[in-house]
Every structure is written in C-alpha cells, then in structure tokens.
Amino acid sequence: METQVLHLSAVEMIPWRDRARADAIKPQWFEGQVEGRLAKPLGITQFGVNLVTLAPGAYSALRHWHAAEDEFVHVLAGELTLIDDHGEHRLTAGSSAGFPAGVANAHHLVNRSDAPATYLAVGSRRPGAETISYPDDDFGPVRK
Amino acid sequence: METQVLHLSAVEMIPWRDRARADAIKPQWFEGQVEGRLAKPLGITQFGVNLVTLAPGAYSALRHWHAAEDEFVHVLAGELTLIDDHGEHRLTAGSSAGFPAGVANAHHLVNRSDAPATYLAVGSRRPGAETISYPDDDFGPVRK
C-alpha cells in the first residue's frame, strides 16, 4: 500500500452546522467551528487526528472529559483559551495540552481572540470502553 | 489533576548522540537529529507524541515498518523527503503522512533541504503486540 500524504490545505473541512444534531445544545458556541479528519484518509485507525479551526468566539466542544481515551491538542496558529475545572490556560501557536483518560477534569477550548485559531486534536480510539461526561450540561454521559 | 500545558519552546530536546547505543547502525545519519517527548509530560500514555528536528542531511530512523502500531507525522516547519518502498514523497510545512500498522511498507524521513525541518510524530502504544522490522539493515526485527 502506498503511503498516504495529505497537506492541511487539502483537508476537507466540514462546518459544524453540517455535522450538528437538530437538538444540539448551545449551537451559538459552534457556528464558527470547522473540522476536518486526517487519520482516516491516511489509513490510521488506532487514534483519531482532527484539524479544527475556531473563528473568534467559537468553542471546541461542550466542556467534557473522557473515561477511557487520552486526548492531545497542539495549536498550529492563533490563540486559544483552555478552560477546565481549575480555571483558564492561554495557548498560543506551538502550545500542546494533554487530557489523560479517566481524569474527571472537564475541559474545552474557546477562541477569545480576534483572529481564527487552528489546532490538531489527537485521541485514542477505544470503542466499547469509552464514556464522555459533560458536567455543565444536561447531556450525556455518552457511551461509545 | 491540573491540565498540563507545554509550549514547543519548553520541550526538552535530546540529541541523538545522547540516546544512541554504542553499536548504532549508520550513526552518520542521525548526528543531526534531536528529539523531545511531549506525551509523558502531558500525562498521556495511550500514544506517544515526539517533537523531532532534523538538520540538513539527517534521517528520522532506519527504514522500518510497524506490525501493530499506527504512526502519524505532521510537518511543522521546513521540508522533508519521505522514502518508502514506492519511492519518494516531498513533505512541506502542513503535510501529514500516515503509516498504518501491519502494512509492510518500510519508511523514513530525510532532510535534503538546506534548513532544519521539524515535525510531530504520533504513535499508538501496544507493548507486547508490536514488532518493528528493518528490511534494509542487519537489525531487528525488534519486539516491544
């Protein structure tokens, strides 16, 4: 099998609206979010790799934590604010953050700057073992 | 547990010479390679994340393939040449490549440009299941 190569400029970026459920919670948080998948086009199945751009004001997700899957983010461009149970962290281009499985510290990212911000998100895939909890919202826990 | 955040500028980068075995094969390929680990300082254990810089002329590794662990690379800066069984691919800043587990297509990266190149490498961790094969060299297969 030929090695698959993909430049970010060729990733299919899908607006949140085209991925959203009709009963989505806090839709105004996500209108400025676009996301593309890198792992599958590259033949990778053991972990996911998503490319995400947040317009000013947009959020990554409802605040959440993973029971079984590690998550890692790396900021490629722009500035983001990471919010978790302990407050806020500022992330700039070149910043990475880790969210270990099973740590009940719900987190998300928001773009409070006046320019778009882009990051890579990597998450292990453990279907059947995973539960995602959303302590701020009347949603979930979601089993996967 | 507080979320761990780490900027690339703060990653401990270790020269290849300080990681090498005395009987290393093709040491001249690796003198210009420095590598730092991101996952562990961020509390991530289910996959590895390494930051690697290759000086002009330096290689990522002996050409190899993984029996059980998916591998993903993303170029942050500079230009690299990916060499596999099918020839060469040029990678530039923003390029990603995937190396699915079990695909016997040995690969490595070399910096043939005249400037340093930096990339992130992500690999799943499946100790006990993994074997790495090095078809070009009298080395391995290595079981992990």
What are the main properties of this structure?
homodimer, 144 residues, mainly beta, Jelly Rolls, six-stranded antiparallel beta sheet, three-stranded antiparallel beta sheet, 0% helix, globular
Annotate the secondary structure layout.
The structure is a homodimer of 144-residue chains.
Chain A: E1 4-7, E2 14-15, E3 33-37, E4 47-54, E5 65-66, E6 71-77, E7 79-84, E8 87-92, E9 95-99, E10 108-110, E11 117-124, E12 131-133, E13 142-143
Antiparallel strand pairs in A: 2-3, 3-4, 4-11, 5-12, 6-9, 6-11, 7-8, 7-10, 12-13
Describe the model:
The structure is a homodimer of 144-residue chains. Chain A has 144 residues and is mainly β. Chain A has one domain: Jelly Rolls. The first copy, chain A, has no helices and 13 strands. Chain A has strands spanning 4-7, 14-15, 33-37, 47-54, 65-66, 71-77, 79-84, 87-92, 95-99, 108-110, 117-124, 131-133, 142-143. In chain A, strand 7 and strand 8 (87-92) form a beta hairpin. Chain A is globular. The model of chain A has no long low-confidence stretch (mean pLDDT 96). Chain A binds chain B through residues 1-9, 38-39, 41-47, 49, 69-70, 72, 74, 76, 82, 84, 86, 89, 91-92, 94-101, 103, 105, 107, 120, 122, 124, 126, and chain B through 1-9, 38-39, 41-47, 49, 69-70, 72, 74, 76, 82, 84, 86, 89, 91-92, 94-101, 103, 105, 107, 120, 122, 124, 126. Strand 9 (95-99) of chain A pairs antiparallel with strand 1 (4-7) of chain B, so a sheet runs across the interface.
